[in-house]
Amino acid sequence: MAHTVNDHTHRQVVEFLMHEAELLDDRGFEEWLEQLTEDVVYQVPIRDTGKKNGDSEILRDGAWLSENWKSLDMRIRRLRMPGVVAEDPPSRTRHFVSNIRIVAGGNPDTVEVKSNLLVYRYRGESVHYDLFSGERRDIIRRVNGAWKLARRDLWLDQAVLASQDISIIL
Amino acid sequence: MNKAEPQACNLEPNLEEIAKNIDAGLLPSEVFSNQAIFELELDRLFIRTWLFVGHESEVPKPGDYVARSMASESVLLVRGHDDKIRVLINTCRHRGNIVCRSGQGNTKNFECSYHGWCYDNTGALIGVPGIEAYGGKLSPDQWSLIQAAKVEHYNGLIFATFNADSPSLEDFLGETKWYLDILTKRSDEGLQTLGPPHRWVIPTNWKLPADQFVGDTAHFPFTHISALKLGTWPITDGPPWVANISLENGHGIWIRGVEAGHPVLWVRGYPDSVTASLKRNLLPGQQEVLNRATSLGGNILPNLAFMDLAFADEPGASSVGYLSLRLWNPISVDQTEIWSWCLVEKDTSQEFKEKAYKAYLRGFGPSGVFEQDDVVVWSGASQTAKGPVSRKLLQNISMGMNNSELDTSFPGPGKVYTNKTRFLESNLRSFYRNWLQNLIGGQ
Questions:
Q1: Cα–Cα distance for residue pair B44/B37, rounded to 1 Å
Q2: Mean pLDDT of successive 10-residue segments in chain B (443 residues)?
Q3: Do A159 and B199 touch (CB under 8 A)?
Q4: How many whole angstroms separate alpha carbon B431 and alpha carbon B353?
Q5: Which run of H or of E encompasses A94?
Q6: How far from each other are the two terminal CA atoms of chain A, in whole angstroms?
Q7: CB-nearest partner of A59 from B195, B202, B372
Q8: Are A128 and B199 an interchain contact pair (Cβ–Cβ within 8 Å)?
Q9: What average pLDDT does this structure show over A64-90?
Q10: E strand or H helix at A118, and its extent?
Q11: What is the ipTM of this complex?
C-alpha cells in the first residue's frame, strides 16, 4: 500500500524538482537531460472536453508531446542550433512547481510525486506572454545514489492551446 | 490583448487593383490585415464553399459526434442513430445557446442547458418543456437544429457547405481528386485518424499558412534549416525534382522529390499489405507520383491543407509515412485556429502507427520542430501587414513566373510547373487569383 516518505527523502525529492526547474529556466538543458533516466518516458497527453469530469478527459491516444531520452536530446540539440527560428530570440521561462505531494511505492528507491506546474513564457519584444498550467505526475528513481526522473505525465489544463507553439521544455 | 501592436485597418479594398497586382506577381500586404477583406472572405467565400469538417473514422458508431468549426460557426459532426452523417449547427433554435459544450462523445440526444429543448442525434427537436404554453402552435419539425445545406465525402474526407446551390463536392475538388486518391486509396481499408486533432490558436491571418501549403517549396531550406539537421528526414538518391501543380478552383499541390526512375516509395516504410494494395488501387501514373515524391502537400481553397510525409521518429531511425490534414480556421483577421490531424492506413501494425504518430508529433503540431518555425514566420508577416506603411507594400509572389516550364510529360492533371532552381510560387498566384475571384464574383 502506498505510504508517505520520510522527511529526508521528502526533502531530496523537493530539492530535485526545484533544481530541475532552475536548470530549465537557466537554459541548462544538457544538464537537465542528465537528470533523466535513460529509459525516461515523458508524456503530455491531450485533454479533451468530455461530458464527464476527471480522468476521462485525458485522451490516452493523443498527445502534445510523447518523448523519450533520444527525442528530448534531439529537441535540445535544436535549441542550440543557429537558425532555430522559434527560439531566436530564446524564450524566457519561469517554471513554478508547487503543491508537491509525494507517495512512496514499495521500493525505497522509487517515489511518485504529484505537483502543480505553471510555466510563464515570454519571447521577443511583444506584450504578449504565454502561460502553461497543468498537473505533473512524476516517477523519480534513485540511480547510483542520485535521484532521476523516470517518468513524467503532464496534464495540461487547456484543450485548445492558446500558445502559438510549445518550443520550450515544460 | 496585444495593445502595443498596430491594429487591423478597415479600409474599403480595391479588389480590381488587387487582381491586377496578382496577375503581375504582386500581393498587397493588406490582404492579411484588412478587416473589410476578412468580412468579405467570410460572406463571399467561407459560407459559400465546401469546408472540411472531419474524417469518417472520427465518428465510426451511431451516436458518435465531434465538435467542429466551419469558419466561426460551431457545428457538430454527428453519425445519427440512422447511421447517416450530418453536420448540425450547434445553436439552440429556442434562444441561441450552445447546445453541446463537449468536444467529442457518443449520445442519443443533445439537451440545451438554457430551457431544456432536446434534440436527437439527427438534429430533430424531440422535447420542449412546457410545450403546452405554445397553445398547440409550435410544430417541432419546424424547429430542428439547422443542418449544413450539403454534406458529402470523398474517400472518407467529410466536407460540408452552407450553400445549397454549390456544385457537388466532386466538381469542387475537380483535378485535385486524382492526387487525393494517391493519399487516400493506398489501402483497401482506408485511413484512420490517430488521436484527436491538435488545436491551437496562432496570431496569423489564415491565408499565410494556406498559401505556404499550396505551394511554397522555397521556404524549406531557410525556415527549417535547424529541423532538417536533426537526422529524421530521409535521405534519398536521385536528382532532386520540385513541382508546383496548379489545379482547378485555386487548389494546388507541391511535390518535393526526385526525377523519375529513382523510386522513393521505401521512405514510407509500408507493410507488404499496403505496398500490394496501392499497386491494385492506384493508376500507374499515380504510382509514379508516389514513387517520385518524398513529400507531397497542398491546399484545397480555402483552408484545408494536407501533407503526405515520411519522417523518422528519432534521429537515425527508419522513416514511416503518414498523412497530416490541417485546417486553418479563421477566428479573426489576425487569429487562426489550427486543427491538425495525423492519419495512417488502417491495416498497418500498432508499432507502425505509434512510430508514425511520434514522427508526426515531433515534426508538426504545436510542439513539432518544423511547425514551430513556420508559425513564427506566418505571425511575423501577419504583424507587419498591420503597419500603416507596410500594409500598402506589394509583396513579391513572382518566383518562377518568367523562369519555369510546364512539364507536359507528367502523368497527373493540372498545370505542372517545374524549374531547375526548384524555387516556384506558381501555386500561390493561382491560389490568390481564385481567392479574389470568389470575393469579386460573390458580390
A1: 10
A2: 61 90 96 96 96 97 96 96 98 97 93 97 97 96 98 98 97 98 97 96 98 94 93 91 95 95 95 96 97 96 97 95 98 97 97 97 96 96 95 94 88 92 90 96 66
A3: yes
A4: 33
A5: strand A92-104
A6: 31
A7: B195
A8: no
A9: 96
A10: strand A110-122
A11: 0.94
Residue A3's pLDDT is what? 60
Query: Any idea how long chain A is?
Result: 170
CB B205 within 8 A of CB B28: no
Q: Which of B5, B103, B375 sits opposite A165 (nearest CB)?
A: B375
Candidates B4, B201, B203; nearest CB to A160 = B201
Name every chain B residue with its beta carbon within 8 A of the beta carbon of A75. 362, 369
Whether B379 and chain A come into contact, CB under 8 Å, resolves to: yes
Q: Is B358 in the A-facing interface, judged by CB distances under 8 Å?
A: yes
Chain A CB within 8 Å of residue B373 CB? yes
Q: Does B131 touch chain A (CB under 8 A)?
A: no
Question: What are the cell numbers at B19?
Answer: 487582381
For residues A123 and B422, give the distance between their C-alpha atoms in angstroms, rounded to a whole number.
Answer: 34
Question: Is residue B412 left, alpha or beta, with left meaning phi > 0 and alpha meaning psi from -120 to 50?
Answer: beta
Alpha-carbon distance values, B137 to B110, B124, B128, B141 (Å): 23, 17, 13, 12
Beta bridge partners of B246: B252, B415
Averaged pLDDT, A93-109: 90
Cβ pair A48:B314 closer than 8 A: no
Given an 8 Å threshold on Cβ–Cβ distance, is B102 in contact with A51? yes
User: What pTM did the predictor assign?
Assistant: 0.95
Q: Are residues B367 and A64, on separate chains, in Cβ contact within 8 Å?
A: yes
Chain A CB contacts of B198 under 8 Å are: 46, 62, 64, 161
CA atoms of A102 and B343, how far apart (whole Å): 39
How would you classify the pairing of strands A58-67 and A36-47?
A: antiparallel
Q: Which residues contact B423 (CB under 8 A, 6 or more apart)?
A: B217, B218, B399, B400
CB atoms within 10 A of CB B244: 30
Strand B157-161 vs strand B51-55: parallel, antiparallel, or unpaired? Answer: antiparallel
pLDDT at B441: 83
- Bridge partners of A111? A104, A140
Across the interface, whether the CB atoms of A46 and B5 are under 8 A apart is answered no
Cα separation, A92 vs A168, in Å, equals 9
Give the pLDDT confidence of A127-144 residue by residue, as tens digits: 899 999 999 999 999 999
